[in-house]
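Hey, I'm writing a tutorial for new members on how sequence and structure tokens pair up, and I'd like a real worked example in the thread rather than a made-up one. If someone can provide the structure for the chain below, I'll link this post from the tutorial.
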Amino acid sequence: MDTREILKRVRRIEIRTNRLVNQSLAGQYHSVFKGRGMEFSGVREYILGDEIRTIDWNVTSRMGHLHVKKYVEERELTVVLLLDGSGSGEFGSRWRFKRELAAEVCALLAFSAIQNNDRVGLVLFTDQIEKYVPPRKGKNHVLRVIREALYFQPRSRGTDIRVALEHLIRTVTKRSVIFLISDFLADGFEKALGIANRKHDLIAVQIHDRREAEIPNIGWMNLEDSETGETMLVDFSKRRVRQAFVRRAAELEESRRRLFRSLNVDLIPLRTDQPYDLPLVSFFQKRARRLR
């Protein structure tokens, strides 16, 4: 695909996601993530009714009468998108591939962030860090983030979410809002997830395709692991085989949900054959109510 076609596609996504931001997410993002911290701005004399814990005892001892610390709400946030670019993202049975859906969700979140004057960064990973785009402000920067999410060519096809989380912990020192976007067809990242969630405000976005949880009677089928290349011939005309497939998928799904619940990590499940704006809006609304 040449540069002109890339720019056209990015522009189409910009128009579509901007419309969703303005129509569906207006105010939702801001109400959930605004002012997640307080910044010291100075001191003033104590006024009856001020909280005792805000008294600045050093200034009070120097001045001879009570002074309290003043704080202002931090308005600027840093938003980092951790995007899984492994081979499993190249699967999709209906409207789009998982990778395409993930890239469009990145665009929606990035445009929501810059409307709030926040900084946006991107970590593209497989079983290694493929690309790191440090957080910055501005529309041109966001368009770069979207281009990278859409068109980067990974060196590897494997998945290691732990590597991405450990990179995040090392490189992003200020508390930030983190969207971890993956199908989570991996393991071994539980400890790193807990550490990252304690340090940052981490939200998991699960990209899922319906054929990963159920499969019709299609007879013999040659399955290939998109990350390892291993193949297996399976007879899906047998009911017990289809039932075992569904059962195994349900067990994996429940284990992921238990993990996120145990670590108090919010989860947004999205499917390739369904609109993604409604689940995102629902998440923001529920989180806003919870934080009131």
